[in-house]
Amino acid sequence: MNNQYSVIVVGGGIVGLTIALSIQQRGTDVLLLDKNQIGSGASFGNAGHIATEQVFPVADPSVLKSIPSMLLDPLGALRIDWRYILPLTPWLLKLLGNMRHKPFMHIHRALSMLNGASLGAWQEFSQQWQLQDLIKIQGSLLVAEKPKTLEKLRQHGDYLNRLGVKNQLLDQSQLLSREPELAENQLGGLFYPDTGHVVELAELHQRLERTFVQLGGKVLTECEVTAINSSSASQAYVTTSQGIFVADKVVIAGGAFSKSLVKMVSRINVPLETERGYHLMLPKEKGRLSVPVSSMDRRFIMTPMNGGLRLAGTVEYAGLKRPPNMQRAQHFLPLANPMLKRSLDSQHNSEWMGFRPTISDSLPVIDQKGPYVFAFGHQHLGLTHAAITADIVNNMIHGQPTPIDCSPFSIKRFL
Q1: 3-class SS letters over 79-139
Q2: How many CB atoms lie within 10 A of CB 97?
Q3: Is the dihedral of CA 341, 343, 347, 352 positive or negative?
Q4: Which key words are in the record (predicted)?
Q5: What is the CATH topology of the domain spanning 4-139+194-414?
């Protein structure tokens, strides 16, 4: 294999993969590296929801009163492993600082801008690469089963509509007409028309990788990066378990593992932590729902896919090294069953745990410095932001203006 490329992309998740394909499509030669397999991390196990409606930071002040339960309930929607408290504390303090009104609203506006550009970017990307059978822009639902929750949803929907995030409040009859399999304890919900979902994540990754290779791109898997350094602003060296490679530009898109990669090229200590996410895949439940359904009361999501119904969500802070607690995956069943008219068929289910990359201010890093381009830290919105991030990075690489203002996503904010 050639050891010299115009661009090396480190990280083969959905963000790195869309970036690599977008750059290669312009005729710029790209090497895509991943320490495991392409699309095997959070990109494989996420909820498949293109969640443009999620325009608020990961945490808000209401979370504070839940901290005791986070420590005591191993199956709670938001869980902190007490053994991980000490290494988590610096990040957690920064997270708390970002709950103050001024930074909270700055984050909210930046996410609103990025999400506002995300759906159109996905639609263009989907059309360009003929992915319409995999990417469905059919909306999603956020439902409530308590009168108090439904009123909160109404207020939330009113605010989002004023912001330009379209939604419609459905009463119970409208909700059950749209999704007849939901039980009558679901009192209503918000329908978001400008959201979507992916019905086959693995197939999406395979097609994009195949197209990338057909265009001349090179892929190296099981390839761990051990060092990155540069001799000038226009050349960098990437040392890996499979050799040393040289590039004009190196894109760091390593998801939850990006913090250590950034340390190789900069003194900046990015406040990035991993949120461990879980899913339970039910292959016997094809066709139960037509669009993703999230529960505001139960704090998880059900996404219909070609391979069945995916139950996902919840957050666990326990770092990158502790073994998964698969009880959290199985706990989705007792969460979901009361929401449905018929109990779910859990035969032949499969469990998964993976790492979401979350920065303390809930915003990604999309920036460039010398020969390095950064594209990581998209928290729960990696799939949502993948296509617009690819557009931004592609323009950065080729010296063109970015489609949106990227100043809120600068790595310099951590200096």
Answers
A1: EECHHHHHHHHHHHHHHHHCCCHHHHHHHHHHHHHHHHHHHHHHHHHHHHCCCCCCEECCC
A2: 12
A3: positive
A4: Oxidoreductase
A5: FAD/NAD(P)-binding domain (3.50.50)
DSSP H or E stretch at residue 237: strand 235-240
For residue 355 the two structure tokens come to 């790492």
Find out whether 50 and 189 touch, Cβ atoms under 8 Å: no
Q: How far, in Å, CA of 81 to CA of 71, rounded?
A: 6
What percentage of residues in the chain have a pLDDT greater than 90? 89
User: What are the domain boundaries of the chain?
Assistant: 4-139+194-414
pLDDT digits (tens, 9 = 90+) for 16-46: 999 999 999 999 999 999 999 999 989 999 9
89-105 confidence digits (pLDDT tens): 999 999 999 999 999 99
DSSP string, 161-181: HHHT---EEEEHHHHHHH-TT
C-beta separation of 336 from 344 below 8 A: yes
pLDDT at 60 over 80: no
pLDDT digits 0-9 by tens, 216-256:
999 999 999 999 999 888 899 999 999 999 999 999 999 99
Question: Using CA of residue 105, residue 166, residue 149, residue 296, what is the dihedral sign?
Answer: negative
Helix, coil or strand: residue 39: coil
**Cα separation of 377 and 392, whole Å?**
15
**Closest listed residue to residue 270, CA positions, set 279, 261, 282, 278:** 261
Residue 68 clears pLDDT 90, i.e. is over it: no
Amino acid at 266: S
Residue 348 CB partners (closer than 8 Å, separation 6+):
283, 284
User: What pLDDT is attached to residue 67?
Assistant: 64
Q: How big is the chain by its Cα radius of gyration, in Å?
A: 21
Query: Where is 205: in which H helix or E strand?
Result: helix 201-214
Torsion over CA of 44, 47, 49 and 52, rounded to 10 degrees?
-100
pLDDT at 18: 98
Sheet bearing 196-198, strands edge to edge: 49-50, 196-198, 135-136
H/E element, 24: helix 14-25
